[in-house]
Amino acid sequence: MKYKRILLKLSGESLMGAKQFGIDNDKITSYAKQIKELHATGVEIAIVIGGGNIFRGVQAEQGGMDRTHGDYMGMLATMINSMALQAALEAIQVETRLQSAIEMKEICEPFVRRKAVRHLEKGRVVIFGAGTGNPFFTTDSAASLRAIEINAEVILKGTRVDGIYTADPEKDKTATKYSHITFDEVYSKGLNVMDLTAFTLCKENNLPIIVFDMDTPGTLYKVLTEEHIGTIVQN
Ligand code: GTP
Fold first, then answer.
1. May I ask the CATH class of domain 5-234?
2. In b/e form, how buried is each residue of 70-79, taking b as 16+ CB within 10 angstroms?
3. 58 pLDDT above the threshold of 80
4. How far apart are CA 22 and CA 103, in angstroms?
5. Residue 203 pLDDT > 80, yes or no?
6. Residues 48-56: what's their mean pLDDT?
7. 116 Cα to the center of ligand 1, angstroms
8. Which class for 192: exposed (0-12), middle (13-18), buried (19 or more C-beta within 10 A)?
9. How far is the CA of 222 from the centre of ligand 1 (A)?
10. How far is it, in rounded angstroms, from Cα 158 to Cα 10?
């Protein structure tokens, strides 16, 4: 295996599958199976999941709601997804622990870095819910922050596309995929990998990001076993 400890960032929106809202059971089960396949190899896995399938802070602001209020609602949305993913993993016998950045002790443990690391060492998949616990930060920032805190060697960012392209491949048929790219090239070419807060945190802490297609079963495993799956961003 290329890495011993990884942080997997999943998109909330992709949990919708073909639905307009919420969680598609087949989709979350398929994600859980991919995670189980990787977990079985002994790789330590932490996960951060977004909440866009349920609520987005930015959308609330457009509707006239205070941004801070909307962001807290978004953090709660990530908890719903985190709990659903925890249930999907445990249904297929993968041991998990869920930690929340906002204390909700009847539901799960609070985020405690040292405890999270201990869980990983014991082979449990650790899910970090409620983002960073602060408004004005995205779940990509939460993923970067938690990855650095737990000394993950890489962030695996699961998306609908299989890497970073010269242009949006859904709009421009001539777009080509990068297999490697540096953080500085991403800045200078204005490519959209993560928001800049999250991205800069990775660059400054020398944490590589691999963007890959999470929607094709088996790809998560291949990212750690095969060369040239997805796009790797590094210094
Ligand atoms: P070790 O004993 O250190 O290996 O870890 P453990 O997670 O098995 O022990 P612990 O006794 O801390 O937790 C047992 C279960 O209770 C786990 O499912 C935890 O996620 C859960 N748990 C721990 N702390 C809390 C909490 O504050 N609130 C909630 N709701 N659950 C918790």
1. alpha beta
2. bbbbbbbbbb
3. no
4. 24
5. yes
6. 94
7. 11
8. exposed
9. 32
10. 5
Would you say the CB of residue 114 lies under 6 angstroms from ligand 1? no
How high does pLDDT run on average in the chain? 95
CB 129 within 8 A of CB 101: yes
C-alpha–C-alpha distance, residues 126 and 28, integer Å: 16
Long-range CB contacts (< 8 A, 24+ apart) of 178-183? Answer: 178/231, 179/228, 179/231, 179/232, 180/231, 180/232, 180/234, 181/231, 181/232, 181/233, 182/233, 182/234, 182/235, 183/233, 183/234, 183/235
> How far is Cα of residue 41 from the mean position of the Cα atoms in its chain?
20
Select from 139, 93, 95, 97 the least CA-distant residue to 116: 97
Chain segment 176-200, per-residue pLDDT in tens = 999 999 999 999 999 999 999 999 9
Q: How many A from CA of 122 to the centre of ligand 1? A: 13
Q: Which two tokens stand for residue 92?
A: 């297929």
Kindly state the DSSP code that residue 111 receives in the 8-state scheme: P
